[in-house]
Amino acid sequence: xxxxxxxxxxxxxxxxxxxxxxxxxxxxxxxxxxxxxxxxxxxxxxxxxxxxxxxxxxxxxxxxxxxxxxxxxxxxxxxxxxxxxxxxxxxxxxxxxxxxxxxxxxxxxxxxxxxxxxxxxxxxxxxxxxxxxxxxxxxxxxxxxxxxxxxxxxxxxxxxxxxxxxxxxxxxxxxxxxxxxxxxxxxxxxxxxxxxxxxxxxxxxxxxxxxxxxxxxxxxxxxxxxxxxxxxxxxxxxxxxxxxxxxxxxxxxxxxxxxxxxxxxxxxxxxx
Length: 272
What we know:
twelve-stranded antiparallel beta barrel
């Protein structure tokens, strides 16, 4: 059940969507995608934005940032609910993602404020279809504060559509940060996993750094719900510090191996 406050925010989000996705996009740039893929990209974009913001400003374990989202067959948009705070300072962020069928690219754009600091996050993602049946996404995000670039995020993402033995949309990626000059930031890399079940609308993405160095020792979790037919949804982002880097790295590697093995097993079962 969507609260009256979130329903009001949804009207604003829907208006942004109508302008950004339908109003300014040329007919050639529009293509109806599977709602599952669009929702997965919403999860990836929101997770990437929260990672950029959290890595730069540190983890506020007491914060839960709540958003209202809107998904169509051509893209998505979202905005923070009113009265969000991070480390006691006001926080707001709204963004959108649109797909260009001609160039096979996603364009992401987000802006807002953290206290008195203006935030801007710009992303470009190139999409190819792998013969193995998944989507390969190469992404680049630029993070700005008050118009000054602070860092970049570079992502190599794989999105796996549902198969008979696994009804989820799933994705995993490996990413690393560079500073304003393009130099890699020591200890600033992460891996992430997300999943989306159209039948329930539930999705989540977990982002963490397997080899952290303070202040980049961050875990970001985003949990949301977006209807399988598109429309208004919600999501919440939380932050935590990575515990015990050495043991956490081993657990991360084990989780990655188990996840890939489970996916391969599911695909083999569906082929029988």
